[in-house]
C-alpha cells in the first residue's frame, strides 16, 4: 500500500472439494508496477502462508494471454494446461519444517498478534 492505494493483492482460498489440502490463489498488481517483482514477492508470500496452513497443493487459473502470470507460475513449479478457455495449473508445495513456522503470540489486552520465528 502506498499513499492509501493498494498496489497489489494476493488471495488464498480453501478448495475443500479436493481430497488433499488444496488452496486456490489469485493475484493482482497495478499495471504500472507489473514486471518489477511485486507479483513474485506476493507469490512467494502466499506460498509461505499456504504451507503454514498445511496446504499440499495450490491451484492457479489465469487468462491464456497472461504470459507474465503463466511464466511466474511456472517459475514456482506450476504444471499448466489449457482447459475451457483458461490456463489452469497446480503448484505442489514442499513440506515445511515445523521450526520454520511463525509462532503467533497473542496479547490479552486486545493488541495485534505478534509473529516471531523460532
UniProtKB/TrEMBL annotation:
- Identify the residues that the record assigns to the N-acetyltransferase domain, covering every copy: 1-97
Q: Which GO molecular function annotations are given, in alphabetical order?
A: acyltransferase activity, transferring groups other than amino-acyl groups
Source taxon at top rank = Bacteria
The protein in question is named: N-acetyltransferase domain-containing protein
Species of the source = Tianweitania populi
